[in-house]
Amino acid sequence: MRDKLLCTKSIGNTYYIKMTFTKAYEKHLLALNLLEFTPDLSNNELVRSELLIEVANDLVKLNVKDRAAKNYKKVLKILKDKEQNPRALDL
């Protein structure tokens, strides 16, 4: 399942680069949903935050900014709860 998740995310990234944002969103959302069925990654909040950022970026390009903002807020919460690198605290 891990390989399927990574391939799906990569396909989404390719669609994003080609500016096919609807398909990118579909693939990134699928990858986020596959995360729940990937035991070695399902509890990894940093992987979850990366996928949430991908989905949020797609939503911005699709002009669905309120849903994008919700995803960005989820990412901020995840990262706030993680131990921070002291050098990055001033950024």
The general outline is flat
Largest sheet geometry: none
Please identify the structural class as seen in this structure: mainly alpha
Radius of gyration: 14 Å
The total of helices stands at 4
**Helicity, in percent?**
over 70%
Give me the count of strands: 0
* Measured distance between first and last alpha carbons: 36 Å
SSE pattern: HHHH
Low-confidence stretches: none
Can you offer a commentary on this structure?
The protein is mainly α. 71% of the residues lie in helices and 0% in strands. The chain has 4 helices and no strands. Helix 2 packs antiparallel against helix 3 and helix 3 packs antiparallel against helix 4. The longest helix has 17 residues. The radius of gyration is 14 Å and the shape is flat. The chain starts with a helix and ends in a 10-residue tail after the last helix. The mean pLDDT is 89.
